[in-house]
Amino acid sequence: MTQSPTPTPLSYKDAGVDIDAGDALVDRIKPLAKKTMREGVLAGIGGFGALFEVPKRYKEPVLVSGTDGVGTKLKLAFEWNMHDTVGIDLVAMSVNDVLVQGAEPLFFLDYFACGKLDVDTAAAVVGGIAKGCELSGCALIGGETAEMPGMYPAGEYDLAGFAVGAVEKSKILTGANVKPGDVVLGLASSGVHSNGFSLVRKCIDRAGTQAPAELDGKPFRQALMEPTRLYVKNVLAALAAHPQSDGSGIKALAHITGGGLLENIPRVLPAGTGANLQKDSWPQTELFAWLQATAGIDDFEMNRTFNNGIGMVVVVDAASAQACAMTLRELGETVYTIGTIVERSSGPAVTVG
Predict the structure, then answer these.
(1) Are strands 183-188 and 139-147 parallel, antiparallel or unpaired?
(2) pLDDT digit string (tens) for 243-274?
(3) Which residues, 6 or more positions from 35, have their beta carbon under 8 angstroms from its beta carbon?
(4) Which of 38, 39, 86, 155 has its CA 20 to 30 Å from the CA of residue 298?
(5) What DSSP string runs through 7-21?
(6) b/e per residue 67-104 (b: at least 16 CB within 10 A)
(7) Do 228 and 190 contact (CB within 8 A), yes or no?
(8) Do the beta carbons of residue 279 and residue 352 sit within 8 Å?
(9) CA distances from residue 178 to 8, 183, 260, 317, 344 in whole angstroms, order as listed
(10) Are 196 and 265 in contact (CB under 8 A)?
(11) Could you tell me where the beta strands, DSSP code E, fall in 36-85?
(12) How far, in Å, CA of 178 to CA of 5, rounded?
């Protein structure tokens, strides 16, 4: 009887998964995460589950959660080797959503998946995540790094994030008390943020070598990759200064993401109301003017595809609007009065004219 040859041993590393690289990444991440620690963290990175205690200053805390990714903006990060800010985008997309209900982001978890782990690239990405958490006051308390050979092309990865915040039950922003005559304030975006990049990439391809060297005073690539603005700390301060009460104060917020101004503002308006925005009440930046001209699209499509220069909308009663705008400007936001709330029985929920 012929004996079969002993098979050559195969390790997990031979199969494409490098446990040592994963351990090295965790060592790089820990000091970054440590900078984001805040009240409530009981156990963070390293355990099977992260522990967080809702701060005792909340009397009737309601938890608000949000999850998102960065989308095809990552394609440009791969092509241009610009990995240090997409982590900020990842955090911003979730914490800005949580903020809309009036919630303070408490903690964040990330998911980084790739075919083969490059520790330097992953550390740059997570460094951006930690920076985003630090800027928004939430703790990076856990996450997952998945190395999956054959699932992703070489040099590419995917990102997902998950944020949890808290708000007092009596202070939840629902938009239910928004009424005709209320004022719509727009907070300037830092650029395209993280939506519409499938069209952005088409514009880059169409422009080819004719793409401008600069847009809005920034190198072309930097202008397009500028991370999503984090509105958390400034808007929370404005909410504290102008709380909703007896028909006054800040009544609703809308994070302008996929669907632009036209589809996100209606999400926070009660039935029978709409928003009438004045087209020339905020300037179109060079970046958005270039995108519109290169894509050859009309104003309607611009306002439905991109934030078009407005990253967060604040709905406030008319009597408080000027003071609220002043508070936000003093905190560092660029604020425009972009429209009013109107009665609506039919037709579009948002008009721009």
Answers:
(1) unpaired
(2) 998 888 999 999 999 999 999 999 999 999 99
(3) 130, 134
(4) 86
(5) PPP--TTTTT--HHH
(6) ebbbbbbbebbbeeebbbbbbbbbbbbbbbbbbbbbbb
(7) yes
(8) yes
(9) 70, 10, 20, 8, 13
(10) no
(11) 41-43, 51-52, 61-69
(12) 77
Task: Please tell me what DSSP assigns to residue 285.
Answer: P
* pTM, entire model: 0.93
CA dihedral 327, 332, 334, 335 (to 10 degrees): -10
Average pLDDT of span 140-161: 93
Q: What is the pLDDT of residues 185-240, one digit of tens each?
A: 999 999 999 999 999 999 999 999 999 999 999 999 999 999 999 999 999 999 99
Measured distance CA(227)–CA(185) in Å, rounded: 22
> What residues pair up with 245 in beta bridges, in sequence order?
248
3-state secondary structure of 134: helix
How big is the chain, counted in residues?
353
Rounded Cα gap, residues 279 and 339, in angstroms: 9
Q: Identify the residue whose tokens are 């579009």.
A: 348
In the structure encoding, which two tokens stand for residue 309, read together?
Answer: 């220069």
Distance between CA atoms of residues 327 and 291, nearest Å: 32
Q: Of the candidates 88, 335, 91, which has an alpha carbon nearest to the alpha carbon of residue 225?
A: 88
The two beta strands, 139-147 and 157-168, are: unpaired
Q: Which two tokens stand for residue 292?
A: 């519109």
**Rounded-to-integer distance, Cα 311 and Cα 326, Å:** 18
Cα separation of 79 and 172, whole Å? 42
Q: Give the ranges where 166-218 is alpha helix by DSSP (H).
A: 197-207
Phi and psi, residue 125, nearest 5°: -65, -50
* CA-wise closest residue to 12 among 152, 143, 119, 148: 148
Element (H, E) at 276: strand 273-277
At 275 the three-state DSSP class reads strand
